[in-house]
Amino acid sequence: MNNLTEIRDTAYGGYGVGTLPDGRVIFIPHTVTGDKVRYRITEDKAKLVYGACEEVVEPSELRGEIYCPHIGECGGCVLGHIKYEEQLEIKKGFVKSAFDRNRLEYPEMEVTGSYYNEFRNRATFRIRDKKIGFYKFKSNEFIPIEHCPVIKSSIVEKAKELAADVEERAYLYVTENEKGESLARTDVELSSKYSFDGLKTGDKPIGRKHLGYDTRYGTFYVGFNSFLQGNRHISHMLQDFVFENAEGRLGLELYSGSGYLTLPMARKCEKIEAIESYAPAVRLAERTKLKNVKWHIALSESIASMGKRKVDLIVADPPRTGMEKEVCKYINESGASKLIMISCDPNTLARDISRFSDNYKIEKVHICDMFPGSYHMETLTVLNKVK
Ligand SMILES: C[S@@+](CC[C@H](N)C(=O)[O-])C[C@H]1O[C@@H](n2cnc3c(N)ncnc32)[C@H](O)[C@@H]1O
């Protein structure tokens, strides 16, 4: 069989889209539109066929600079072989097609890029045979690494130092602030915190339990397990977006984490009610000492049962799975004049907006490429209540 195809698109997840001889679609990672490739089928389900690229017979003009020897295998930079400007176009395409599928109307999208300049302030490594590394794309096969161009190099060096003492298979999560203070978490039992300021080893914390991150709007605190926006160069754009667009007397923030977006919001609203389900994140949020914020440890989906309030603004930054149906229903009936939605998955974002699109129209869309090389991005939207 002549296993050749021309790639005609990039699908969400980072797959090149090709065509099988019987006309069905095949998804082939590490390829790009315009490539002519020889492939092998790796998974054949009735509707979904996945393949692996065996040879690029004719490379596309959209292929770019290879900035890391692991491009083409690593699960992190699945778009890393593609010119950076094209990656931005692809990501814009992901957002547009999600919005179009959900029949949403939207204005011209603004896109801001970053670069492969050690932008990551946090990373989760695998440890095998005393080395750090990552898994291959969609596999548990380990790739040892010495350096990673997208992660702050001091994070990589500190991780290597600890891993050199670990015989077992383990994971290691590391985060570091701009002062060089760092926290790490691993599933192996260790008796030292190595070069970290705090280490959670198994269930036992050694040293510091949280770090402060200075931002334009005040200091924000993170712990071993709390959420942290991942790009040390452009994460502040999320805060700036909230600052520029927030207004109103009472603001409601859903999925507030440790208060990263509450900091700018608190400068624009008289009062804020912030809701987050992970109790340690709320304890860290309280350290911001924001006087006009009431923090709630609660599920966002319990908002409707938390009493009636006349909300002017709702800010929501849910996890990848998006917002629960009850939350969308609450927003739809809230009467808030403005919504600011921030999301790391355009598909769940579009689905959620479609649940309140009779009452709210999209006024702004800004895509921030927080993760160059990967297929991930943040989409920031402002919606206004239909009069
Ligand atoms: C993408 S993070 C955003 C955090 C914060 N806005 C920030 O920028 O750091 C999503 C947050 O939602 C929280 N979360 C997840 N499911 C939740 C739920 N059902 N109700 C409330 N919070 C939830 C997570 O613990 C996490 O802190």
| Main β-sheet description | 8 strands, mixed
| Count of β-strands | 23
Percent helix among the residues?
10-25%
Number of helical runs? 7
CATH superfamily of the largest domain: Vaccinia Virus protein VP39
Q: Given the C-alpha coordinates, what overall shape results?
A: globular
**Ligands, deduplicated:** S-adenosylmethionine
What is the CATH architecture descriptor of the largest domain?
3-Layer(aba) Sandwich
Q: Tell me the structural class.
A: alpha/beta
Order of helices and strands: EEEEEEHEEEEHEEEEEEHEHEHEEHEHEE
* Uncertain stretches of 5 or more adjacent residues: none
- For this entry, what is the oligomeric state of its chains? single chain
Major sheet: arrangement of strands: 7-22-23-21-20-17-18-19
Spatial separation of the terminal alpha carbons: 60 Å
CATH class of the largest domain: Alpha Beta
Describe the structure.
There is one protein chain. The chain is an alpha/beta fold and 387 residues long. The protein folds into 3 domains: 4-63, Nucleic acid-binding proteins (OB fold (Dihydrolipoamide Acetyltransferase, E2P)); 85-115 and 233-385, Rossmann fold (3-Layer(aba) Sandwich), CATH 3.40.50.150; 122-214, no CATH class. The chain is 18% helix and 33% strand. Strands 7-22-23-21-20-17-18-19 form an 8-stranded mixed β-sheet, with helices on both faces. Helix 1 runs parallel beside helix 7. Residues 227, 229, 255-257, 260-261, 275-278, 281, 299-301, 317-319 line the site of S-adenosylmethionine.
Keywords:
387 residues, alpha/beta, OB fold (Dihydrolipoamide Acetyltransferase, E2P), Rossmann fold, 3 domains, 7 helices, 18% helix, binds S-adenosylmethionine
